[in-house]
Design brief:
Distance between the termini: 28 Å
Helix content: 40-55%
Largest sheet: 3 strands, antiparallel
Mean pLDDT: 87
Number of helices: 6
Radius of gyration: 15 Å
Number of strands: 5
Length: about 140
């Protein structure tokens, strides 16, 4: 499914003169996030998720599914950016749902500065989960 979406998106971008700057994917076992939550590790959630993300998560019947997909989404964005290292802060990637449920990515802090320096365009993100796993695919594009 994700591969089909990526292929269709690539075909569209070729016609529209949109350039892909990076692609990243991540898969995460939901139990890992649930275990951290069950251990009452508030520090992890505060350093990993923005206040708005935590608010949206707590509105859900099962916040862990929200947290797990967002964590996978943040990792996919890091990979699409081609960045690694201790300077990366997951809370500098904010992933919120629009009214229609579509996730939107906002870069904050040093990642926002990096995106301006590199002249990054929009970050497209697909999130999903099924039983045990959360998965994410991020595509960073620019318009030329």
């Amino acid at each position: 499914m994700v591969l089909t979406v990526v292929i269709l998106l690539l075909e569209y971008m070729e016609r529209a003169m949109i350039m892909i700057l990076g692609i990243g994917t991540d898969i995460l076992k939901i139990k890992r996030v649930r275990d951290v939550y069950d251990s009452n590790n508030d520090a992890f959630f505060k350093k990993t998720y923005t206040a708005k993300e935590r608010d949206q998560a707590e509105e859900r019947p099962d916040p862990m599914l929200y947290y797990a997909t967002r964590f996978a989404g943040k990792e996919a964005v890091f990979k699409a950016l081609g960045e690694a290292g201790n300077w990366l802060r997951p809370a500098e990637i904010e992933i919120l749902n629009q009214a229609n449920g579509q996730p939107t990515v906002t870069l904050l802090g040093e990642l926002h500065q990096l995106s301006e320096k590199r002249k990054l365009g929009i970050i497209l993100l697909s999130l999903s989960y099924d039983t045990d796993y959360a998965i994410a695919c991020a595509i960073i594009q620019s318009f030329d």
